[in-house]
Predict the structure of Succinate-semialdehyde dehydrogenase (NADP(+)).
Amino acid sequence: MSTAHESDGALGDLIDPELPAATYVLEPDVVAPLVRRIVTSDDAGTHRSTLPFSGAPLVSFPLSSVADVEGAVRRARAAQPAWAALSLRERTVVLDRLGATVLRRQSEILDLIQMETGKSRRSAFEEVADVAQVTRHYAVRGRRYLADRRASGVFPVLTGVRVHRRPVGVVGAIAPWNYPLTLVLSEALPALVAGNAVVVKPDPQTTLCALWVAEALEESGLPEDLFSVVAGGGDVGAALVDQVDHIAFTGSTATGRKVAARAGERLIGATLELGGKNPLYVAADADLDTTVPGVVRACFSNSGQLCMSIERLVLHERIADEFLERFVEAVRGLELGSALDYTADVGSLVSADQLARVTEHVDDALAKGARALVGGVHRSDVGPFFYAPTVLDDVPADALCATQETFGPVVSVTRVASDAEAVRVMNATDMGLNASIWSVDVARARRLAAQVEAGTVVINDGYLSAWGSVAAPMGGFKASGQGRRHGREAIESVTEVQTVAVQRGARFGISVDSLYALGGETPSKVLTVAMDAMRRLRLR
Ligand code: NAD
């Protein structure tokens, strides 16, 4: 991988000139092997990221320019045909090794994830587990997903048709900060297995995790230039959309619309994994002993900064009071913390911006008449961006958190009198990413699921059963996205479908041309008889 720092190896380039190196949480020489992987030139500026747990400067690294993005894509384009020409087995071996590497070196990547995002170690481990699952899945199922398929030809026997999946070329992946390991790899792995090259633009706050992935892929045997990282914000992301053959975007709905518009102009494919305003319904028959801890996890994993996280609780009125009493007590007992170990239940928000957004949503709801059953406060005693897990009741319809994604540890409560009303409330949003239903009667929950407008509906769990089931597609209805990650669908989005049709009868004198050579009305008459016979014989 080529970078501007290869030649001189000067650490000075990696250090923010305004800050003494000693003030960084991560020593510059420790992160230098990662930071040198950024595709960058000398004049594109630097970015300083922050340790969310304390607000201290974490690391400073160079950014990529538009020309760097063009260079990364050019080199990826040059490397891709040789990769695609390898056997599928040779490509999947790399995935298998990567899965093993991530499991073996998990303490390193768990530390990095926690330090860049501020999340708890348990939330970070969900990323490690996800990558182990996804690598295994595509290593095993890649062959089936990419297999050629026969199709019936226009003339039975005389026309042989096969449908092939070809890699699109270079896939761009733009990722947010909330799952910096998972969201880079769940797009990159199906792309690589299908024979594409990948250029990734992570969020600036979580660039080190993407660079660690680049290092782990190289260690797993991925040839040079097939996975590269460009660093920067929206301008670098937009430059990537301008260069690649497919863009896999994960982020907010607002940015997703811009990416989709540009991809539309360029006529490239776009997979869009966007925001949610996810509901969770506790039916009258739910078993509260299992429901309460499950709902706590559904709402507060990664401090609610999870696209599938639950932000709207829909409670049947028969169990609402008892559920809330037990739920609020469990939420109050959640342990907040910043240690790089498994002691905390809930970590920090990622940044001052996220803290401001969460605070604005809660304060707005409270000012409009909502009540905080628990939480509703900034926990600066734990760290600068910590916010208490919060349950809001009586949230008015015009409150920000009633309709907009908060993307934080805040959930609001609505009571309903029937399943039908629950479905109406669940669907009363322009988002449709994830929904959850809790009931001991799974058949009834399945019937409700069929009426819910969401890309995943999880019964008796909040999100993990759908997210972790990587053979099944995951994505959004409505403004929550377009296309799907995971499973066969992810492979389909990064491949072109090519039909190869062979006319077999020509050397025996049977061909479209020999038919047309009969002249006049005769070919049409012959074809009419043939098609009528096929219809009667129910052929095709
Ligand atoms: P964001 O849209 O602000 O940024 C996402 C990424 O897009 C970042 O890397 C950013 O630098 C880049 N970007 C910004 N402007 C761009 C542009 N004009 N062109 C190209 N790239 C651009 O999102 P965020 O606030 O960082 O992330 C949180 C959002 O992501 C939430 O809405 C969350 O629900 C969503 N999300 C969705 C999923 C999913 O699978 N559906 C998963 C995780 C997060």
Remarks:
- Residues 1-11 have pLDDT under 50 and may be disordered.
- Residues 121-146 form the longest helix (26 residues).
- The pocket of nicotinamide-adenine-dinucleotide is lined by residues 174-179, 183, 201, 203, 233-234, 237-238, 241, 250-252, 255, 258-259, 273-276, 307, 405, 407, 433, 476, 481 (CB under 6 Å).
- Residues 119 and 347 are 4 Å apart (CA to CA).
